[in-house]
Specification:
single chain, alpha/beta, Rossmann fold, 4 domains, 5-stranded parallel beta sheet, 5-stranded mixed β-barrel, elongated
């Protein structure tokens, strides 16, 4: 039984009683013979009004407030609450002297002071919340850390990393975790795990294989001692898309998202969320090659042009060799002529040494 249904029934009964009482009073003051019709008629109208209108001033506003609060971080809520309490305390101290002023100031100014100091307290504390959190962290650590770094101490936001479904399926996150370059806790929300399970149960064989691979990667991650993997039931109400939930959750927890999804990367950056992109990491750790350098490369296939040969470095970087089609199947010494950085990665153009 839903809350809407319960409140509708309660509202129907309350407004039916109110309508019946009003109809009884109206019939008694106008025509005693019409008391029963007036009472029944107004009770029916009140019951219909209560049945239809009750959710609009009970459950609907509560849901709206909950959706609003979900999008507000814990730091904002705490800072706003502290500012409100501080503003009300200052207003309470000024209430007595202000009430001693002559009329009408003695009646109006105490009420206005409560509104003004409450508003300015919330505005001030929310605006300077980062400084307040730093101060709290410094006091908690008692000088153990510098005041410039307690953002990590507050909520441990920098030590938690949210994992996206795509990066779990990709699988490279397990290899990165083994190297120790992902310190802290890898947080996997329940809705990400549900999406991964949905993919693993798909009728499409390719999607099913990708989902099962993601499950295997999660199992492998839980065995890595260098990182802590935590699956949480935390959720974002009022939002259906997994990517939107991840962005909102990352803003609330003030933590980055580990992904290789290009669209999620762009959307999150526009909303001020830090993204750790596995593809960018892979491109960053590839070997740096400059024009004029020589190396040996195994040419394994033809390129797009008729005289080109293609080989690959140990890190997977494609090397296009001009005039290399004559050396397919051989390891040839080449000279780098140009390095091209694209969205898909790095490409190296070279020519065979004479």
């Amino acid at each position: 039984m839903s809350y809407d249904f319960v409140f509708r029934i309660v509202g129907m009964i309350v407004f039916a009683l109110l309508g019946g009482y009003w109809g009884f009073w109206f019939g008694r003051t106008n025509d005693l013979e019409q008391i029963i019709p007036y009472t029944l008629g107004m009770s029916t109208v009140g019951a219909l009004f209560g049945l239809i209108a009750t959710p609009y001033f009970t459950t609907f506003p509560v849901r709206g407030i909950r959706r609003l609060l979900v999008r507000v971080s814990a730091e904002n809520l705490l800072a706003g609450l502290a500012g409100l309490v501080t503003g009300l305390l200052v207003a309470a101290l000024l209430t007595f002297p202000l009430s001693m002023l002559p009329e009408p100031f003695g009646n109006v100014l105490p009420f206005l002071s409560v509104l003004l100091f409450g508003y300015f307290g919330v505005a001030l504390f929310v605006t300077r919340q980062s400084d307040l959190m730093n101060l709290i962290g410094a006091v908690a650590n008692r000088g153990g850390e510098s005041v410039s770094a307690p953002n990590a101490a507050w909520g441990q936001g920098s030590r938690t990393i949210l994992l996206d479904t795509s990066v779990i399926i990709d699988g490279r996150v397990a290899d990165i975790a083994k190297t120790g370059f992902l310190p802290g806790t890898l947080l996997i929300p329940r809705f990400v795990l549900n999406e991964l399970q949905y993919i693993a149960d798909s009728a499409d064989s390719l999607r099913r294989q990708r989902g099962r691979r993601g499950m295997e990667v999660l199992s492998e991650l839980q065995k890595v001692s260098a990182v802590s993997v935590r699956i949480s039931d935390i959720d974002v109400e009022g939002v259906r898309e997994v990517d939107d939930k991840l962005v909102i959750l990352a803003r609330q927890l003030k933590c980055p998202i580990l992904t290789n999804d290009f669209n999620l990367n762009r959307v999150a950056e526009l909303q001020g969320v830090v993204i750790l992109n596995v593809n960018e990491l892979a491109n960053a750790v590839k070997s740096v090659v400059l024009p004029g350098e020589t190396m040996g490369i195994a040419i394994i296939q033809e390129g797009k042009e008729s005289n080109q040969g293609v080989g690959y470095m140990d890190d997977g970087t494609m090397v296009v060799v001009e005039g290399g089609n004559k050396f397919i199947g051989q390891t040839k010494a080449i000279t780098v002529t140009k390095v091209l950085q694209t969205a898909a990665g790095r490409m190296i153009f070279a020519k065979p040494e004479d």
